[in-house]
UniProtKB/TrEMBL annotation:
Molecular function as annotated in GO: ABC-type amino acid transporter activity; ATP binding; ATP hydrolysis activity
Lineage: superkingdom: Bacteria
Record carries keyword Cell membrane: yes
Keywords assigned by UniProt, alphabetized: ATP-binding, Cell membrane, Membrane, Nucleotide-binding, Transport
Residues in ABC transporter domain copies: 16-250
Pfam families, per database record: ABC_tran
Keyword ATP-binding: yes
Protein name per the record: Glutamine ABC transporter ATP-binding protein
Source organism of the structure: Lampropedia cohaerens
Length: 254
Protein backbone atom coordinates (compact mmCIF):
# COMPACT_ATOMS: atom_id res chain seq x y z
CA UNK A 1 0.00 0.00 0.00
CA UNK A 2 1.07 3.59 -0.16
CA UNK A 3 2.00 6.23 2.37
CA UNK A 4 -1.28 5.81 4.25
CA UNK A 5 0.34 3.30 6.57
CA UNK A 6 2.44 6.13 8.04
CA UNK A 7 -0.45 8.42 8.83
CA UNK A 8 -0.22 7.84 12.57
CA UNK A 9 2.95 9.78 13.15
CA UNK A 10 3.03 13.26 14.67
CA UNK A 11 6.39 14.82 15.48
CA UNK A 12 8.91 14.94 12.65
CA UNK A 13 11.16 11.94 12.88
CA UNK A 14 14.55 11.17 11.43
CA UNK A 15 13.58 9.77 8.09
CA UNK A 16 17.19 9.34 6.96
CA UNK A 17 19.90 8.26 9.34
CA UNK A 18 23.52 7.82 8.27
CA UNK A 19 25.87 6.68 11.00
CA UNK A 20 29.63 6.49 10.45
CA UNK A 21 29.09 5.57 6.82
CA UNK A 22 32.22 4.64 4.95
CA UNK A 23 32.64 3.57 1.38
CA UNK A 24 35.55 2.62 -0.81
CA UNK A 25 35.88 2.27 -4.56
CA UNK A 26 38.67 -0.31 -4.58
CA UNK A 27 41.44 1.37 -2.57
CA UNK A 28 39.90 4.81 -2.85
CA UNK A 29 38.19 5.92 0.36
CA UNK A 30 35.30 7.89 -1.11
CA UNK A 31 33.09 8.40 1.98
CA UNK A 32 34.67 8.92 5.38
CA UNK A 33 32.55 8.63 8.51
CA UNK A 34 29.46 10.31 7.13
CA UNK A 35 27.01 11.16 9.92
CA UNK A 36 23.73 12.73 9.00
CA UNK A 37 20.19 12.79 10.29
CA UNK A 38 17.44 14.21 8.12
CA UNK A 39 14.07 14.92 9.70
CA UNK A 40 10.88 14.31 7.85
CA UNK A 41 10.00 17.40 5.81
CA UNK A 42 13.50 18.82 6.00
CA UNK A 43 15.18 20.38 2.96
CA UNK A 44 18.90 19.78 2.71
CA UNK A 45 21.30 21.17 0.15
CA UNK A 46 24.54 19.29 -0.35
CA UNK A 47 27.38 21.19 -1.97
CA UNK A 48 31.12 20.83 -2.39
CA UNK A 49 33.84 20.56 -5.02
CA UNK A 50 33.59 18.09 -7.87
CA UNK A 51 34.67 14.64 -6.71
CA UNK A 52 33.97 15.31 -3.03
CA UNK A 53 31.48 12.42 -2.75
CA UNK A 54 28.12 14.22 -3.01
CA UNK A 55 26.62 11.90 -5.62
CA UNK A 56 27.98 8.84 -3.87
CA UNK A 57 26.41 9.98 -0.60
CA UNK A 58 22.92 10.38 -1.99
CA UNK A 59 23.23 7.28 -4.15
CA UNK A 60 23.94 5.25 -1.01
CA UNK A 61 20.58 6.38 0.38
CA UNK A 62 18.64 4.41 -2.21
CA UNK A 63 21.33 1.78 -2.58
CA UNK A 64 22.41 2.71 -6.07
CA UNK A 65 25.76 2.43 -4.31
CA UNK A 66 26.61 0.09 -1.47
CA UNK A 67 28.41 1.31 1.64
CA UNK A 68 30.90 -0.97 3.35
CA UNK A 69 30.86 0.31 6.92
CA UNK A 70 28.37 2.07 9.17
CA UNK A 71 24.58 2.17 9.05
CA UNK A 72 22.03 3.76 6.79
CA UNK A 73 18.40 3.68 7.93
CA UNK A 74 15.70 5.11 5.68
CA UNK A 75 12.19 5.41 7.04
CA UNK A 76 12.97 2.84 9.72
CA UNK A 77 14.39 0.35 7.24
CA UNK A 78 18.08 -0.45 7.50
CA UNK A 79 19.85 -0.82 4.17
CA UNK A 80 21.39 -4.25 3.90
CA UNK A 81 21.67 -6.74 1.07
CA UNK A 82 18.06 -7.76 1.65
CA UNK A 83 16.49 -7.14 -1.76
CA UNK A 84 12.99 -6.80 -0.36
CA UNK A 85 14.12 -3.97 1.89
CA UNK A 86 15.97 -2.30 -0.98
CA UNK A 87 12.86 -2.48 -3.15
CA UNK A 88 10.78 -1.00 -0.35
CA UNK A 89 13.17 1.92 0.04
CA UNK A 90 13.42 2.54 -3.69
CA UNK A 91 9.63 2.84 -3.79
CA UNK A 92 9.78 5.53 -1.11
CA UNK A 93 12.78 7.45 -2.40
CA UNK A 94 12.52 9.28 -5.70
CA UNK A 95 15.62 10.39 -7.53
CA UNK A 96 16.17 13.03 -10.18
CA UNK A 97 19.45 13.06 -12.07
CA UNK A 98 21.42 15.63 -14.00
CA UNK A 99 20.60 13.89 -17.29
CA UNK A 100 16.88 13.34 -16.93
CA UNK A 101 17.08 9.60 -17.80
CA UNK A 102 13.64 9.51 -19.40
CA UNK A 103 12.78 6.58 -21.67
CA UNK A 104 13.11 8.10 -25.16
CA UNK A 105 10.78 5.63 -26.86
CA UNK A 106 7.91 6.27 -24.43
CA UNK A 107 5.66 9.31 -24.33
CA UNK A 108 5.73 11.66 -21.38
CA UNK A 109 2.57 10.03 -20.04
CA UNK A 110 3.97 6.52 -20.51
CA UNK A 111 7.19 7.55 -18.75
CA UNK A 112 5.06 8.61 -15.80
CA UNK A 113 2.77 5.56 -15.67
CA UNK A 114 5.38 2.84 -16.22
CA UNK A 115 6.60 2.37 -12.64
CA UNK A 116 3.23 2.92 -10.95
CA UNK A 117 1.73 0.23 -13.20
CA UNK A 118 4.56 -2.29 -12.99
CA UNK A 119 5.94 -1.67 -9.51
CA UNK A 120 2.85 -0.52 -7.66
CA UNK A 121 0.45 -2.60 -9.80
CA UNK A 122 -1.91 0.30 -10.41
CA UNK A 123 -4.51 -0.06 -13.16
CA UNK A 124 -3.62 1.96 -16.25
CA UNK A 125 -6.48 4.41 -15.81
CA UNK A 126 -5.54 5.23 -12.23
CA UNK A 127 -1.85 5.53 -13.13
CA UNK A 128 -2.78 7.96 -15.90
CA UNK A 129 -4.88 10.07 -13.57
CA UNK A 130 -2.01 10.31 -11.12
CA UNK A 131 0.41 11.10 -13.94
CA UNK A 132 -1.78 13.91 -15.23
CA UNK A 133 -2.09 15.29 -11.70
CA UNK A 134 1.68 15.56 -11.35
CA UNK A 135 2.21 16.79 -14.91
CA UNK A 136 -0.19 19.58 -13.99
CA UNK A 137 1.80 20.24 -10.85
CA UNK A 138 4.98 20.70 -12.87
CA UNK A 139 2.89 22.73 -15.33
CA UNK A 140 3.26 20.67 -18.51
CA UNK A 141 0.06 18.61 -18.83
CA UNK A 142 -0.18 19.64 -22.49
CA UNK A 143 3.04 17.71 -23.24
CA UNK A 144 1.67 14.35 -22.08
CA UNK A 145 1.48 12.81 -25.55
CA UNK A 146 4.90 13.95 -26.72
CA UNK A 147 8.20 12.07 -26.65
CA UNK A 148 11.09 13.34 -24.51
CA UNK A 149 13.10 14.28 -27.59
CA UNK A 150 10.37 16.75 -28.56
CA UNK A 151 10.74 18.68 -25.28
CA UNK A 152 13.24 21.26 -24.06
CA UNK A 153 15.72 20.27 -21.38
CA UNK A 154 13.78 22.15 -18.71
CA UNK A 155 10.56 20.43 -19.73
CA UNK A 156 12.27 17.03 -19.71
CA UNK A 157 13.58 17.63 -16.23
CA UNK A 158 10.12 18.62 -15.04
CA UNK A 159 8.79 15.37 -16.54
CA UNK A 160 11.49 13.51 -14.64
CA UNK A 161 10.34 15.18 -11.43
CA UNK A 162 6.69 14.39 -12.17
CA UNK A 163 7.61 10.81 -12.99
CA UNK A 164 9.28 10.42 -9.61
CA UNK A 165 6.33 11.99 -7.81
CA UNK A 166 3.94 9.51 -9.44
CA UNK A 167 5.46 6.84 -7.18
CA UNK A 168 4.35 8.91 -4.17
CA UNK A 169 7.83 9.01 -2.65
CA UNK A 170 8.40 10.19 0.90
CA UNK A 171 11.87 11.47 0.10
CA UNK A 172 13.22 13.10 -3.06
CA UNK A 173 16.90 13.06 -3.95
CA UNK A 174 18.18 15.49 -6.56
CA UNK A 175 21.63 15.17 -8.09
CA UNK A 176 22.51 18.43 -9.83
CA UNK A 177 19.12 18.63 -11.54
CA UNK A 178 19.87 21.93 -13.27
CA UNK A 179 23.53 21.45 -14.22
CA UNK A 180 22.84 20.14 -17.71
CA UNK A 181 20.29 22.83 -18.53
CA UNK A 182 20.67 25.96 -20.58
CA UNK A 183 20.60 28.96 -18.22
CA UNK A 184 17.14 30.12 -19.28
CA UNK A 185 15.68 26.77 -18.21
CA UNK A 186 17.20 26.61 -14.77
CA UNK A 187 14.53 28.77 -13.19
CA UNK A 188 11.56 26.68 -14.31
CA UNK A 189 13.11 23.59 -12.75
CA UNK A 190 14.07 25.42 -9.56
CA UNK A 191 10.53 26.83 -9.34
CA UNK A 192 9.22 23.25 -9.49
CA UNK A 193 11.59 22.24 -6.72
CA UNK A 194 10.57 25.22 -4.60
CA UNK A 195 6.92 24.30 -4.94
CA UNK A 196 7.75 20.71 -4.00
CA UNK A 197 9.60 21.98 -0.94
CA UNK A 198 6.58 24.08 0.02
CA UNK A 199 4.42 20.97 -0.15
CA UNK A 200 6.44 19.49 2.72
CA UNK A 201 8.48 16.94 0.81
CA UNK A 202 11.70 15.75 2.43
CA UNK A 203 14.39 16.78 -0.03
CA UNK A 204 18.10 16.18 -0.31
CA UNK A 205 19.51 18.21 -3.18
CA UNK A 206 23.00 18.24 -4.59
CA UNK A 207 23.17 21.59 -6.31
CA UNK A 208 25.37 24.59 -6.90
CA UNK A 209 22.35 26.87 -7.01
CA UNK A 210 23.16 28.85 -3.92
CA UNK A 211 20.10 31.06 -4.33
CA UNK A 212 17.99 27.93 -3.96
CA UNK A 213 20.06 26.89 -0.94
CA UNK A 214 19.57 30.28 0.70
CA UNK A 215 15.84 30.45 0.23
CA UNK A 216 14.75 26.83 0.50
CA UNK A 217 17.24 24.81 2.52
CA UNK A 218 16.79 24.20 6.22
CA UNK A 219 20.43 23.15 6.36
CA UNK A 220 23.35 23.28 3.96
CA UNK A 221 26.00 20.58 4.01
CA UNK A 222 29.47 21.18 2.66
CA UNK A 223 31.46 18.11 1.65
CA UNK A 224 35.11 17.93 0.71
CA UNK A 225 37.30 14.89 0.01
CA UNK A 226 34.69 12.41 1.18
CA UNK A 227 33.95 14.16 4.47
CA UNK A 228 31.15 16.32 5.76
CA UNK A 229 33.08 19.44 6.69
CA UNK A 230 30.23 21.65 7.78
CA UNK A 231 26.47 21.54 8.31
CA UNK A 232 24.65 24.77 9.07
CA UNK A 233 21.44 26.67 8.40
CA UNK A 234 21.87 28.76 5.24
CA UNK A 235 22.07 32.16 6.96
CA UNK A 236 24.96 30.90 9.06
CA UNK A 237 26.52 28.87 6.26
CA UNK A 238 26.74 31.83 3.91
CA UNK A 239 27.51 34.65 6.35
CA UNK A 240 29.62 32.90 8.94
CA UNK A 241 31.15 29.68 7.60
CA UNK A 242 33.32 27.99 10.17
CA UNK A 243 35.79 25.95 8.18
CA UNK A 244 38.59 27.33 5.99
CA UNK A 245 37.61 24.77 3.39
CA UNK A 246 34.04 26.10 3.28
CA UNK A 247 35.30 29.66 3.04
CA UNK A 248 37.60 28.75 0.15
CA UNK A 249 34.76 26.94 -1.65
CA UNK A 250 32.31 29.79 -1.20
CA UNK A 251 34.97 32.20 -2.40
CA UNK A 252 35.13 30.27 -5.66
CA UNK A 253 31.44 29.93 -6.38
CA UNK A 254 29.85 33.12 -5.02
P1 LIG B 1 30.72 14.42 -6.57
O1 LIG B 1 29.31 14.04 -6.83
O2 LIG B 1 30.91 15.21 -5.32
O3 LIG B 1 31.37 15.11 -7.75
P2 LIG B 1 31.21 11.56 -6.61
O4 LIG B 1 30.45 11.04 -5.47
O5 LIG B 1 30.61 11.38 -7.96
O6 LIG B 1 31.57 13.10 -6.33
O7 LIG B 1 32.64 10.92 -6.67
C1 LIG B 1 33.55 10.96 -5.60
C2 LIG B 1 34.85 10.34 -6.02
O8 LIG B 1 34.67 8.97 -6.28
C3 LIG B 1 35.43 10.93 -7.28
O9 LIG B 1 36.84 11.03 -7.10
C4 LIG B 1 35.12 9.93 -8.34
O10 LIG B 1 36.08 9.92 -9.36
C5 LIG B 1 35.11 8.64 -7.57
N1 LIG B 1 34.16 7.68 -8.14
C6 LIG B 1 32.85 7.90 -8.35
N2 LIG B 1 32.25 6.79 -8.84
C7 LIG B 1 33.22 5.85 -8.94
C8 LIG B 1 33.25 4.49 -9.38
N3 LIG B 1 32.14 3.87 -9.80
N4 LIG B 1 34.42 3.84 -9.34
C9 LIG B 1 35.54 4.45 -8.88
N5 LIG B 1 35.59 5.73 -8.46
C10 LIG B 1 34.46 6.42 -8.49
MG1 LIG C 1 28.13 14.33 -8.53
Amino acid sequence: MSTQTHAAEHAPKDIILMEDVNKWYGDFHVLKDINLKVRQGERIVLCGPSGSGKSTTIRCINRLEEHQKGRIVVDDVELTNDLKQIEKIRREVGMVFQHFNLFPHLTVLQNCTLAPMWVRNLPKKEAEEIAMHFLERVRIPEQAGKYPGQLSGGQQQRVAIARSLCMKPRIMLFDEPTSALDPEMVKEVLDTMVSLAESGMTMLCVTHEMGFARTVADRVIFMDKGEIVEIAPPEQFFTNPQSDRTIAFLGQIL
